[in-house]
Each structure stands twice: as C-alpha cells, then as structure tokens.
Amino acid sequence: MTPVRGSSAVTGLVAFEGPEGAGKSTQLARAAAWLAARGQPARVVREPGTSAVGQEIRRLLLDPAHDITPAAEALLFMAARAQLVERELRPALAAGELVLADRFFLSTYAYQIHGRGLPEAEVVTANRLATGGLVPELTLLVRVPPGVGLARAGRRGAHDRMEQAGTAFHARVSQAFDRFATAEWQAAHPECGPIVAVDGTGDEGTVFDRVAAALVARWPTLAGAAPGVGAQ
Questions:
Q1: pTM of the predicted structure, to 2 decimals
Q2: Average pLDDT score, the chain
C-alpha cells in the first residue's frame, strides 16, 4: 500500500512503555500492522537495541551473570539511547517517518530513578545529553498490576537480569509508572511529552482496541481508511 503523504501523514516518535510483562511489545507489533493497513508504515525500534552498539549493550544489561551497579546500569541505558537517537531516530524523523519505539527514557525514570533509587536531577540531566532534547510525540503507557506482569514475563522463559530484580523493586517501578500517568507529574516533566495510560488487562485484542483508540485520538485521520479498530 502506498504510504500516506501530505497533511494527513502521521510523523513523529511514539514510545510504548510499561512494566515487565505489560504486553507493550505485543501491542507495538499490532500497532505497526494496523498502521500499515492504513497506508501509514512505521519504523520499529527497541531500546536498548536496534543498532549494533545498542544490541551489545542490551546483551550486557540483561545477562543475569553480570553484577552491574545502579549508576553503571543507568549510564549503559543512556549510551544505547544516545546511539539510537543519533543513528536511527533523528534520520527517520527528519525524513518524515513515524517511529514506534519499544521503550524510551520513561523506562529510565521508572527503573533507575524510582526502582534503583538514583537521584532524579542527575539522571534527568544525563538523559538530556542522551536524547539531545528529543521529545516523543506520544507515549502509550500500558499498565498492569506488577504480579500480573511478572507472571506473564515468567511464561516467556527464564527471567533476565532486570526481571530478577525482586518483587519490591518491580512494585516501585509499577508505582512510578502509575505516577507518570497523572497530569500533575506530566506537567512537571515536559521533556516526556504527552503520556496516555492504556489498561493492559484483558486479551490482546481488547487491549489493542484501547491502543488504537489512543492513536486515533492523537491522529484522527487514522480513523478513516480501512479495517475496524483492532483489525490486523
């Protein structure tokens, strides 16, 4: 299908966020297919990852064999992000593409600031260097209770290093994501752009109906062409 161009084209960065096992990666894949069916292809990236440098950093960060301090963990995520922004995101956005990102810096705020207890001001400053001020057009925050998310993650196989951090850590992360969904927190953090919470409970199709509704609310032209909400 020919991509949509002109005033109706959808461009910008959309980040999919949420705690472990929320289903954000599944919903991102469904969103990419749904958008393509409407003549609006999207580039898909993940963080950390996508670039060769990001993939190596991802391997280090998720390997349970590594003992990584909270500060080193945060800086490794920042390094992967800086590479992703410079080598992948900025060129795509300059070309007028829509980019869907499986995690972005909201995860750093949740996992490293609230989960690990690192000082917010220092992390936010480092993140500004990594992103160069890039702000997502929209962040879709898929929310599930921490117990539900970790149970889902466990069904995928052995837990990675982040998933093994413990229930108290993941409870703090989940509570942080809940805070991020509030208007008060967003007003105090304009660098994060608009954040829309999506209820991640229920079957995949039901959750995607909510994701699609959020995309249409942001870009009404997506409601026009094509299959109904939730279709692949």
A1: 0.87
A2: 88
